[in-house]
Amino acid sequence: MSGPIKRMAHVGLQVPDLDASVAWATTVMGMREVERVDGVSYLTHKDCHHSLQYIEGPGSALDHIAMEAHDSEALARLTARLREESVEIVSERPEERGIAESLRFVGPDGHLFEVFTGMEDAGPIHTGSGVQPRKFGHPTLTAPEISVTQDFFRAVLEFRLSDEIGPGLLSFMRCNPDHHGLGLQKGEPGLNHYAWEVENVAVLTQLGETLAKNGSRFIWGPGRHGAGHNLFTYHYDPAGCIVEYYADLYQVWDEATYVPGRWAADDPDGQNLWGPGVPMEMIKAATPLAERAAVGS
Predict the structure, then answer these.
(1) How far is C-alpha 245 from the geometric centre of its chain's CA atoms?
(2) Same domain, yes or no: 98 and 154
(3) Is residue 126 part of a domain?
């Protein structure tokens, strides 16, 4: 029986310059702004109401991570489970536009999570500019002891472990056949990066050209991760958050026979089969939690 989560849906980010972030998302990342209300921009890569949310604020911070439940019944079961586990529930109604039902709760390291059902359709798909992703892929969260958040996702949200590097340094978890919909990296509570899937390596090449034309460049990649086996690139957005574009992610179709990969911390192949390991600036990077998420209020 599958767990309550159907897919990873979006990330909500606090940004200091909303216009600059939206301009970058719509020019470089191929997104489309669906609407902007009270200092909140809702952007989509496709036809869903939003797959990225920018919230105007005093600085760069992670507001929340959103996941879509299979249906209303799955959402109700999750709500009951959270109460059984004495998890802090912040809200049981939609706190953003475009969704019908929603639940928000605080994870063990202070991250604010949203699970919803019933997202509105946003109409036309193509933007005609930038490098449009195929789907929102995953966030990689940072936490002092990743085993705590890992155990929470396994026990409460029924995610499965796919690979780990360390142990205790980096782990990857899944809620569907995608090798990972969640990454966990050792660090202060926050966000290391958020990721988008594209069709193939040719699109990653197109992204490199687009970044160069807009005064930016990759900070790591192109390369191929050993853990997950996906092609990857990473760059900064205007608020200083790291964005991954990737392709060719491993798919786990047989849950009965899959064995999680275990990579030693000093094994370079876990990070990159093609070239250098992760740069130190990415190891240390962590967009901090927004104040609301940190206190659960």
Answers:
(1) 11
(2) no
(3) no
Is residue 128 classed as helix, strand or coil in its secondary structure?
coil
Query: 3-state DSSP call for residue 244?
Result: strand
Cis upstream peptide for 167 (omega within 30°): yes
Range of the domain at 17: 5-120
The answer to whether the CB of 287 falls within 8 A of the CB of 62 is yes
Spatial distance between the Cα atoms of 190 and 295, rounded to a whole number of angstroms: 13
Report the run of H or E that residue 205 belongs to, with start and end.
helix 201-213
Segments in 138-195 forming alpha helices (H)? 146-155
Alpha carbons within 13 angstroms on the beta-carbon side of residue 103 total 26
The residue among 23, 13, 2 whose CA lies nearest residue 287 is 13
3-state secondary structure of 38: coil
- Residue-wise pLDDT tens for the chain (297 aa)? 479 999 999 999 999 999 999 999 999 999 999 999 999 999 999 999 999 999 999 999 999 999 999 999 999 999 999 999 999 999 999 999 999 999 999 999 999 999 999 999 988 777 778 999 999 999 999 999 999 999 999 999 999 999 999 989 999 999 999 999 999 999 999 999 999 999 999 999 999 999 999 999 999 999 999 999 999 999 999 999 999 999 999 999 999 999 999 999 889 899 999 999 999 889 888 899 998 644 333
Q: Which residues pair with 103 in a beta bridge?
A: 115
Backbone angles phi, psi at 131, to 5 degrees: -110, 100
Q: What is the CATH number of the domain that holds 93?
A: 3.10.180.10
Tokens of 253: 């179709």
261 within domain boundaries: yes
280 and 155 together in one domain:
yes
Q: How far apart are CA 62 and CA 15, in angstroms?
A: 9
